[in-house]
Design a protein that fits this description.
heterodimer, A: mainly alpha, Cytochrome C Oxidase, Chain A, 18 helices, 73% helix, B: mainly alpha, 82% helix, 0% strand, globular
Chain lengths: 565, 185
């Protein structure tokens, strides 16, 4: 038995060394590249639909009768919030697991492929009813709006695929830990573990909603549905999903960016604490999306404000950590004075520039999030374009620009090609165009929202009502922003596929920053994921049992399905 | 000392009348949020106090069993419906709650937990699991209002709070008994 364990350990160590010397394992790279390819095709399609929406809201494009606004709104949301983000996250973390844990196990590779095709089948089943205008329910698919049942079956397959990938990740992590007794999980694999725990936790809620509530209702097996319960289960998933994409971006900020700027990582212990805190407190934050929902008492909403703002604490830790790392690195490179270090950062490197702008965008994005978590302020902005502006800042800048920055080293690494200076320049131009487009669009959306322009509606002048005509210049700016964004999307997708198939052959590194010399090791308790998962479940149980019991026991008769489009 | 200050700040925060009133306005937040947070505040404050009275605890709680027994008694006492009612209607009982939970539950828990063996810790968690299932069943199936100050729906919610917490504890126990830490650590 001991001999077998020792043999396993040696094989694992050898595999890690081989990874470092030979670079990427081609079989593992194929998995990650497939995920990234789907992600960026989704970006292209989603971006194109976004432009159509932007031009429609600007009042310059009337959509044809066979393609209505809500159809493209649904497809845009699904392609970008669900497909792009999920596929990128999985491709990136599977590459990270392969690199830091000495390659994926053969059975994990198999799981990853089965998961990939399960998700693709699910995706087709979701997209077809949307294209047929049978599922224009938007990506939140709130009952009582009911899509074609096939749409919901597709969602089930997507969730099953995610569970397979999470299982694969857990198997690989457990295997590594068995062969590296007493060692801390490499930091990128630690982030991956947190992300997959959250993915399982979040999708469990939406699985209950879809399997036990919506599918029987959409098939006509039951007449009515409890709308409030469905919305609550959805947001336990929806909010967490968004935060999973954010945590993925955060992993690059902590682990990758310091290496790219030639520095060292922020304190290892505190980094792990941030991951654990985000995992434990995340799912319960879903309630702040329901602040204006009826049927939830004010004291409960008040308490949930605390639970939402609690997530702000690790985010503030992150903000401090990042700028501390920048300052430390800049000063070591000779930066003098209060802000001299700022000039020493590699501004011409797209792998840094893009994630840096992403981080900077999180300052107004986070502040907007705090506004929306506050009951009184949310009353003003909840159903307006403000919210659309908010999630274009958080997802469209903080998350996606980090993903773009990652793509400029991850895709060449996986493809055994290099990032040429020309491609880097194109990346910088793409980053600038995306930033200008998104800033114009997000600011205009926030402003239009403050003046009362509603979200989730196609263009209308409300019978040329004077008050609403004042929104039009802002909506024109949204159209201009959307146009710039599509140009940036085309450049980005071109860059990804060029780096995947056509760039010059060569080796690039997987940039993982080291910790500071002489740093005290993190205590081993950070590795006890079993305990953190139980704590997470207790927090969720406490947060949800109160409103859910009330919604179920005092339930109204429920609603039959409606097709509103 | 830092922990003591955090514990003291939490204790003072919980004492602020509107905060206490908010927690006590709902049965489940009264029992499952305010009370555990009082225990946590005592747990945090007691590190400093335990160091100062090291000898006393070494003499009276050298194997952790007296301390954990006191902790259990206080915790069980505060899950009795009548005690919650009295805390809301009698000022002296409210003071007793604010004294007993931090100092007679939080403090002995901190001193005892590290002295208990792994089996001892799991037995305590097992007892809580059984108790939570039992209390959950009582609050869910009791057709009468058990507390004068709360509605039946509050009672039902608390019952489900007990059951869901007990399920989480079962998951922990399954984890503790099926995963062998020596394979990983």
């Amino acid at each position: 038995m001991d001999a077998a364990i020792e043999q396993n350990r040696r094989a694992a160590v050898l595999s890690e060394k081989k990874n470092k010397v030979l670079g990427v394992c081609l079989e593992d790279a194929r998995i990650s590249k497939s995920y990234l390819a789907v992600a960026f095709v989704a970006l292209l399609l989603g971006g194109l639909l976004g432009l159509l929406q932007g031009l429609n809201r600007a009042g310059v494009l009337e959509l044809p009768a066979w393609l209505n606004y809500y159809q493209i709104l649904t497809a845009h949301g699904l392609l970008l919030v669900v497909v792009l983000s999920a596929f990128f996250t999985i491709g990136y973390f599977y590459a990270g697991l392969s690199h830091t844990l000495g390659g994926l196990l053969p059975k994990v590779r198999k799981l990853a492929w089965i998961g990939f095709w399960t998700k693709m089948v699910g995706l087709v089943l979701v997209v077809v009813p949307v294209l047929m205008n049978e599922a224009s329910v938007m990506y939140t698919f709130y009952p009582p709006m009911a899509a074609h049942p096939v749409f919901y079956f597709g969602l089930v397959f997507v969730v099953l695929g995610i569970w397979m990938l999470a299982t694969g990740a857990f198997i690989n992590v457990a295997h590594w830990r068995k062969n590296h007794k007493g060692q801390h999980l490499p930091i990128l694999a630690f982030f991956a573990t947190g992300v997959f725990v959250l993915l399982v936790g979040a999708t469990a809620f939406v699985a209950v909603e879809v399997l036990f509530m919506i599918i029987p209702w959409s098939l006509g097996w039951v007449e009515t549905i409890n709308v409030m319960v469905a919305r609550t289960l959805f947001w336990a998933f929806g909010h967490t999903a968004v935060n999973i994409w954010y945590l993925t971006a955060v992993s690059a900020w902590y682990v990758i960016v310091p290496k790219i700027i030639g520095g060292t990582r922020w304190n290892d212990y505190l980094t792990r604490v941030v991951v654990i805190a985000l995992v434990i407190m995340n799912i319960t934050g879903g309630f702040h999306h329901q602040i204006v929902d009826p049927g939830i008492s004010l004291p409960i909403k008040f308490m949930h404000v605390f639970m939402s703002l609690a997530i702000g604490f690790p985010s503030l830790m992150t903000a401090y950590a990042m700028f501390r790392v920048f300052e430390r690195t800049g000063r070591r490179k000779g930066g003098k004075g209060a802000l001299g270090w700022f000039k020493k950062l590699p501004w011409g490197d797209v792998r840094f520039l893009s994630p840096f702008i992403a981080m900077a965008a999180f300052i107004p994005a986070g502040a907007g999030g705090i506004v929306q978590s506050t009951n009184q302020l949310d009353q003003v902005v909840h159903n307006t374009m403000w919210i659309v502006g908010h999630f274009h800042l958080t997802l469209g800048m903080s998350v996606v620009m980090t993903f773009f920055g990652i793509s400029y080293w991850l895709v060449p690494y996986l493809s055994k090609r290099v990032l040429t200076p020309q491609m880097n320049k194109l990346g910088v131009i793409q980053t600038i165009i995306w930033t200008v487009g998104m800033v114009i669009m997000a600011i205009s959306m926030h402003a239009a929202g403050l003046f009362g322009s509603p979200r989730r509606t196609s263009f209308t002048t409300y019978g040329d009502f004077a008050e609403t005509l004042g929104w039009n210049p802002l909506m024109t700016a949204v159209g201009i922003g959307a146009t710039l964004l599509l140009i940036a999307v085309i450049l980005q997708v071109h860059a990804v596929f060029n780096m995947m198939f056509f760039a010059p052959k060569g080796e690039v590194e997987f940039p993982i920053a080291e910790v500071e010399k002489n740093e005290t090791a993190a205590p081993y308790m950070t590795e006890r994921w079993g305990i953190w998962v139980v704590v997470m479940m207790i927090v969720i149980a406490m947060a949800y049992v109160l409103p859910l019991t009330d919604m179920i026991v005092n339930a109204p008769p429920g609603s039959p399905p409606f097709k509103t489009w | 000392m830092t922990q003591f200050i955090y514990g003291l700040l939490l204790y003072i925060f919980l004492m602020i009348p509107p905060i206490a009133a908010l927690f006590e306005s709902m049965m489940i937040t009264h029992m499952h949020m305010q009370m555990p947070m009082l225990v946590i505040s005592g747990f945090l404050m007691s590190g400093f106090l335990l160091r100062r009275s090291h000898r006393f605890f070494e003499k009276w709680n050298h194997n952790g069993i007296p301390g954990i027994t006191l902790f259990m008694m206080i915790m069980i006492y505060w899950t009795i419906p009548r005690t919650m009612d009295e805390a809301l209607t009698m000022q002296t009982m409210e003071i007793w709650k604010f004294m007993s939970l931090p100092f007679l539950a939080g403090m002995p828990l901190r001193d005892s937990w590290k002295k208990l063996t792994k089996a001892g810790k799991n037995i305590i968690i097992f007892i809580f699991t059984v108790k939570y299932f039992g209390m959950g069943a009582l609050y869910i199936w009791s057709e009468e209002s058990l507390c004068n100050n709360y509605l039946v729906i509050d009672q039902l919610t608390l019952g489900w709070g007990f059951i869901t917490t007990a399920i989480c504890l079962v998951i922990y126990l399954v984890y503790a008994f099926t995963v062998n830490p020596s394979e990983y650590e």
